[in-house]
Design a protein that fits this description.
By secondary structure, the chain is mainly α. 73% of the residues lie in helices and 3% in strands. A hairpin with a 5-residue loop joins β3 (219-221) and β4. The radius of gyration is 33 Å and the shape is elongated. α14 packs antiparallel against α15 and α16 (278-284) crosses α18 (318-368). The strands form 2 sheets. It has a two-stranded antiparallel sheet.
């Protein structure tokens, strides 16, 4: 039995991810909300504010709702055209189509297998997206009509492999024209675990698709202004000194775990992350972690004179010198603060020890008497 208060709480705290729809057994709608950021960037989420009571009646199989639904079926042999559902079909269908298209790099999209993929797979993905929206309760639809409509848009795709709006619109028109009927199964009788696993699988598949798109289309800009595709940068990262150093750190942590166990591992891991910046500061000043305050000051003065921007005759190196100069200053400030804090802590610890010794001597004298 679904409760309206719980549904509204889920709507408020997790509505953008379709949590209230999943609670009410509307799994397809939950996926749509999750995939389109709250039903087309929050529009569907806001609309649910006054639609939730109807969803509650459907989930609880309310007699009044069932009677009204039966009368509607008798009066309208087929579901009426709904502009909101129609727009949702176009949006999700187009989204599925463009995501599958972006999985193919631009340089491979106009030849060989890449071209065949860009012509055949996106219309099928568009039809799937339209089919998902068209099957939201209390309507059900076949897959063949949205597929036929999507394939009718192939001529535009042949002209431009990224032009899927015509396929999405035609797919939505076809499914509303011939492919939909009433869904007599009100509510959701499937077991919770089966529903949860199915929804998680669909979300994982959709997330994987986004991951492939980001991998194929994203790029990283270097300090020289050069754009490097992410699919090239990632393999280069695994061959970089940074990755080799990271692997070595992970190996050290694993060895530490084998010797000291899990409890000490977290402390060592935090130490490796260098939250205080002390390790990096020593590295910037090119000093060991056993350096004294005098050695730190001496090294700081040498580096400041060496990297002062006013001493750089080459104008092209002034920006680099300025950055290095500021980095040296930050490193020195970090180490100075750390050493000052440790000195204060040592003074407090000594005073505490002295106080404890005094208390012990006083107690000993009392015991003598």
């Amino acid at each position: 039995m679904a409760h309206i208060m719980i549904a509204y709480i889920f709507w408020l705290v997790g509505g953008w991810w379709g949590l209230h729809h999943f609670y009410l057994g509307r799994d397809r709608q939950a996926f749509i909300w999750w995939a389109t950021f709250g039903g087309c960037f929050g529009l569907g989420w806001f609309r649910d504010l006054w639609r939730i009571p109807e969803y509650i009646f459907a989930a609880n199989r309310d007699n009044g709702y069932l009677n009204e639904f039966e009368q509607k079926r008798q009066y309208y042999p087929y579901p009426k055209f709904n502009i909101v559902r129609f727009a949702g079909e176009i949006i999700l269908g187009w989204t599925f189509g463009i995501l599958t298209r972006l999985c193919v790099p631009e340089e491979n999209a106009y030849e060989g297998l890449g071209l065949i993929f860009c012509i055949i797979v996106p219309p099928c993905a568009i039809a799937l997206g339209v089919h998902v929206v068209a099957n939201v309760q209390p309507v059900k639809a076949s897959f063949q009509w949205p597929l036929i409509g999507a394939l009718c848009g192939v001529p535009w795709i042949l002209y431009d492999t990224a032009n899927f709006i015509y396929s999405a619109v035609l797919s939505a028109i076809f499914v509303n024209w011939k492919g939909k009927q009433w869904n007599t199964e009100v509510g959701n009788n499937r077991p919770f675990c089966k529903r949860f696993i199915s929804l998680c699988f669909c979300c994982l598949l959709y997330s994987t698709l986004w991951g492939v798109v980001i991998y194929q289309t994203a790029s990283i800009t270097t300090k020289d202004g050069e754009e490097v595709p992410l699919r090239e940068a990632i393999p280069n990262f695994f061959n970089s000194p940074a990755w080799a150093e990271m692997k070595e750190s992970l190996k050290e942590l694993y060895k530490f775990y084998q010797i000291h166990g899990f409890e000490k591992l977290w402390e060592e891991f935090v130490e490796k992350l260098d939250p205080t910046g002390e390790t990096n500061a020593y590295k910037v000043l090119n000093l060991s972690d056993t350096a004294t305050e005098k050695e730190i000051k001496a090294r700081y003065k040498i580096l400041v004179r060496e990297w002062h921007p006013d001493k750089q005759r080459d104008p092209s190196k002034k920006a680099e010198a300025q950055e290095k100069f500021m980095e040296i200053q930050r490193a020195y400030e970090i180490l100075s603060k750390i050493q000052s804090r440790r000195m204060r802590q040592n003074v407090k610890a000594r005073r505490k020890e002295e106080d404890q010794e005094w208390m012990d001597r006083r107690k000993f004298r009392k015991d003598e008497f």
